[in-house]
Amino acid sequence: MHDLAFVGFLAALMGLALRRPFLFILVYVYIDIVSPQRLTYTLLNSVPISLIAVALAVGSWMLVDRKEDSRVAPRQILILLLLGWCAVTTMRADFPADALDKWDWVWKCLAFAAFLPLTLRTRLRIESLLTFMCLSAASIIIVGGIKTAAGGGGYGSLDLMVTNNSGLYEGSTISTVAIAIIPTILWLGKYGTIFKRDWKVKLFTAALVFACLLIPIGTSTRTGLLCIGLLVLLKLRDSKRKLLYIGMISVLGLAAVPFLPTSFTDRMSTIKTYQQDESAATRVAVWKWTWEHVQQHPLGGGFEMYRQNQIRYDIVKADGTKDNARLDSKLTTDRARAYHSAYFEMLGEQGWPGFILWAMICLGGLFRMEVIRRRYRNAEGDEAWIAPLASALQAGQLLYMLGACFIAIAFQPFMFMLIGAQIGLDTYLGRKRAEASFRPMMKRAKAAEPQPALA
Predict the structure, then answer these.
(1) What burial class does residue 374 get, using C-beta atoms within 10 Å of its C-beta: 0-12 exposed, 13-18 middle, 19+ buried?
(2) Contact assessment for residue 405 and residue 343, using Cβ atoms and an 8 Å cutoff
(3) DSSP structure string for 51-103
(4) Which residue of 61, 131, 219, 405 is surrounded by the most CB atoms within 10 Å?
(5) Residue 314 in 3-state DSSP?
(6) pTM for this prediction
């Protein structure tokens, strides 16, 4: 019965997509984010539903979708260049077999990100994509939020429906994504047109934002706490009543402290004492090793090259009271430790060429969203939604880039979908501006035509 519910839902979506082929894109988005094949016992495990969905999505676009409104943006070319460079490093990887395993899903992520903006020709399509992304992630976030509110959670122990600690089901990753989509959730609640903006939508929006804020608490991830801090600053930028906003945030923050679980506060306290925490000390050691390695191998070592690292680091233990503590240093050795940073992941695996391409893709999104935000910040009427959406997508990118400092999510598919939405918004607005400037030219040309003589 559990499997039949998932099969029925997918069958219903694909049935609707037969009438509206763009829905095949959204079906693939749902499958890629939620991974229903990992949530079922037998039925979906034996069928390559992801491959079927992407084949239907690309095939329907090629056969029946309009192409004249589609544009190719510079960042799509950069994504394709990054895809090509990843193929080169995979062929010459230090660990060929392991590299092929990662390449198997990375190329799909990058190819879909480059393809996605071609389909986002209207506001409704952009909004539909963002709605599916948020609701798909919400299916994981709501579960984690309920369990956290019920007293569950802890670092590495919050059950998010599957035992496989990968994708969005990994604690630090879902913490980053949960905070990164809050601006988009708020935008959908205020400007969305798919659902009627009544009290039910407002209530669900508020509840979903609350669940997103609970995820870093339930997972006890320091990355999530840092992302919440940055989110507060980003919302301050967009707030019209900044003093009132600061006061409300301060009151809410102080009121929430007594209700935070001890496991969360104890782990957050290690931010200032990373040398006493083995996880944090290991990360710093791996980053140093990767930086030294890339100096000798500037073109990278291919996917999974971290398996060759050998690191030495000191763990500092504090004994005694706070005012009279004795520090003991213990030398620790380890090997094959993961990067725990998207920046060092790109440097180690793809070298400077891949890192520069990836940085240009990310920074290009921040720049283009800022251009759009400033261009439409005083817009009214039918264009009032544009600047807030650009601000929300920019904030999501910034939050991702902060979380990426501490998690190896350089190729996280969800965030590349967000980049695809940025590109889609940019190309859509570019086409609308071109059409708006073309119409007056046509009117002037028509007015200049000689008028026929009266009989």
Answers:
(1) exposed
(2) yes
(3) HHHHHHHHHHHHHHS--TT----HHHHHHHHHHHHHHHHHHT-SSHHHHHHHH
(4) 219
(5) strand
(6) 0.87
Cα-based distances in Å from 218 to 160, 181, 230, 251 = 10, 17, 19, 22
Instruction: Collect all residues with Cβ–Cβ distance below 8 Å to 311 and sequence separation of at least 6.
Output: 282, 285, 286, 288, 289, 333, 334, 335, 337
Quick count: other Cβ atoms within 10 Å of Cβ 129? 22
Residue written as tokens 């283009």?
368
DSSP class of residue 19 equals: T
Amino acid at 332: T
Query: H/E element holding 317?
Result: strand 310-320
Backbone angles phi, psi at 142, to 5 degrees: -65, -40
- Residue 12, CA atoms < 13 Å, CB-side half-sphere: 6
Q: Which residues of 183-197 are buried (b: 16+ CB within 10 A; e: fewer)?
A: bbbbbbbebbeeeee
Residue 208 has pLDDT above 90, yes or no: yes
117: its two tokens: 């903006």
455: pLDDT confidence band, cut at 50, 70 and 90? very low
